[in-house]
Structure formats: structure tokens, C-alpha cells
Amino acid sequence: MAVTAVTGDIGSGKSTGAKILARLLGCTCLDADVIAKGCWELDGVKVQAVKRWGKGILDAEGRIIRAAIAERIFSAKSEHDFCNALIHPVVMAKLRELTRNVDAVVEIPLLPETGRQGWISKAVYFCAPFEIREQRCRAQRGWSTDELRRRESFLLPQNVRMSVCDYVIRNDGSLEDLEQQLQSIIQEVT
After folding, report:
1. Does any domain span residue 16?
2. CATH number at residue 179
3. Cα dihedral across residues 11, 103, 98, 118: positive or negative
4. 188, pLDDT greater than 70
């Protein structure tokens, strides 16, 4: 089975690109962030998170408060590293399980930080100029420029992140431009 991973810069259009690529390939589209949301509720993960960050990360029903987790993850490199070590192996195992018998496009924002897995056939990196990504993050996530920069400071340098990928897509134009770029790599991805 062919599994194409999509990764890239924050606000570069990874989600949109992954959906378009999955449509062009006629396959399943998965999102590591969606899988991770569910994994935070697993007993082993939740216990370790509460042990590290306290019960303030839980709501009244004992569910993880995602904003509280994000606040802690992006407070210091040690907290970010703890999060990656806790959640990423669980998420990657779940993604491997979900893609074992199907062709899929999988959006994995932190693929370079977690390491490219052997079950990934090809990887596509999405990038765009900072100004465009800044506008997207402000409009879609309500982030300030400082918030975007703060979160990016926890990532590996762009050149290192790109080096784990087979293709680079510069997503700074229209949806038609993006689809055309993706169409051009289809023959090599399949």
C-alpha cells in the first residue's frame, strides 16, 4: 500500500493540500492532529500528562482541555520534548495501523521532528512565504505574528524539515495552482 505523508510549515496549506492530493489519488485522507486529539484521552497518555502538568489540564468530566495542553507544550522546549515523546509514538502507531491495508495521504505536521517512518512511501513538504502563512494563521486560527513565531521556534529549521521529504510544494498561489503542482507529482507518488 502507498502512504504519502504531507508535512510542512505552519500555515502553508497542508490540510488543503492533503485533501486535494487524496482526491487526485482516489484514496483515504488522514490527519495526525485529529488522531492525536483522541490519543490524549487514552488512559496511559492522560495519566502521564496529568502527572507532568497537574489536574488543571482536565475539565470537570476529566477530559483533556486541549488549550491547556497547548499552553504547556509551547511554554518551554522541555515541555515540547515531553509532549513529543509521550504522544508521537502512540499517534504514529495508530496511523500505521490505519494505513496498513489502504492507500492513504496522511497529514503529519511534525513528521521531521518524529522521524520518517518506514511505512511512508513518499513525503511532500508544503511551504509558503511567511507573510502568507501569517495571514492564514491570523484568519483561520486567530494567531498573532508573535504566536506563529513562538510555535515555529519549537520546530527544526526549515531546511532540515524539508530534507526528509521527496517533494516540495510552494503554496503561495490559487487553489488551481496548488492542484496543478500536486497533479505534476501524482505519477511519481503512485
Report:
1. yes
2. 3.40.50.300
3. negative
4. no
